[in-house]
Known about the structure:
The protein is built from 1 helix and 11 strands; from the N terminus they run αβββββββββββ. It is mainly beta. It has an 8-stranded antiparallel beta barrel with strand order 1-2-3-4-5-9-10-11. Strands 7-8 form a two-stranded antiparallel ribbon. The longest helix is centred in the N-terminal third of the chain and has 14 residues. About 30% of the residues are buried.
Amino acid sequence: MKKQLIFIPMLLWMFTLATYAQGVSENGHEKSDVFLRKTGKLISFTQGGVLLGNSDNTNSAPFILNTSLNYAFTRNISAGVGVGVEFFRETHLPVTGNILYQFGDKRLVPFVMLQAGYQIALESKLTDDRRYYIPYDSYLSYYYPQYELDAKGGFMANPSVGIIYYTKQGVGLSLALGYRYQKLNYTGEDDYKMHIEYNRLSLQFGIIF
């Protein structure tokens, strides 16, 4: 059941794409007011990229994908909710609140964005196969415990800065660099608990309309 949630970002993106299509006239030309950044409009922002940096994760650069649907309160400020999919030691579905601020109204626009929310684990079981050691006198003895853990998800936050380039049709292409913090929680038998914290750089490309 949880793995089926991975289709939620796709469905949200398809919905916003359909909203975009409503702004196109029958002869294929965009209406003049579709992409003007006015208040009261819905904005779709989809980003994909990687998380860079060292961690205990076996994947050195996990792939991330997220899409959000924001409401434009002003020409510059919009906020909304988003979902995505991310691949760490197991697959997670982040559910976030987002706030986006775009500076100015030119075709090349700097922006700042904050995403924060909760990571839902789509794979409930994880085997902890990390290597540990215990010192004995003059040598080290290694052992490999095999804990089967239940993934519980955890809190995440991702502030970022970037630029958006708007085409003549009003579709924006974005590049963003951010900082990702998240804490994933696991439980096992005999009240065993494990917490993994990630502190990484996020590099994402996106499309906004």
